[in-house]
Amino acid sequence: MRESVQAEVMMSFLVSEELSFRIPVELRYETGDPYAVRLTFHLPGDAPVTWVFGRELLIDGVGRPCGEGDVRIAPVDTEVLGEVLIRLQVGSDYALFRSSTPPLVAFLDRTDKLVPLGQEGALADFDAHLEEALDRILAEEQSAG
């Protein structure tokens, strides 16, 4: 049986230095994909957008700048740990979000109670899901080539 942890967090979408607005962001963690967290952004006038990245990246990003490539997370002030910046990038375009740290920490604490950090690989469901996904990828490559 797959279990999950969900939370809704209000974040500021930083459009520019002068313009930002608050949006609801759904955080989701599922035992079926125990290494990942999902952030679904509900931007006004657009369909929801979901980003998936490593749970460990979010854990580390609360306390120190981390991430390479598409997702980068860093505390606004490493001394205070009151707010976190989340930068999501596609090509040369990026979106920057600011979140209060306590709701992120509370969400991560709940994920750790469901699947302790370092115990993700022990989930048999995940292994079956991974094997199924790899089989599907290999079949697609063989039919394409």
Can you tell me about this structure?
The chain has 145 residues and is α+β, with helices and mostly antiparallel strands. The chain has three helices and seven strands; from the N terminus they run E-E-E-E-H-E-E-E-H-H. The protein has helices at 55-63, 101-114, 124-144, and strands at 4-14, 20-30, 36-41, 49-54, 71-75, 83-90, 93-100. Strands 4-3-2-1-7-6-5 form a seven-stranded antiparallel sheet, with helices on both faces. A hairpin with a 7-residue loop joins strand 5 and strand 6. Helix 1 (55-63) crosses helix 2 (101-114). The model has no long low-confidence stretch (mean pLDDT 88).
Write a concise synopsis of the structure shown:
The chain has 145 residues and is an alpha+beta fold. The chain has helices at residues 55-63, 101-114, 124-144; strands spanning 4-14, 20-30, 36-41, 49-54, 71-75, 83-90, 93-100. A seven-stranded antiparallel beta sheet has the order 4-3-2-1-7-6-5, with helices on both faces.
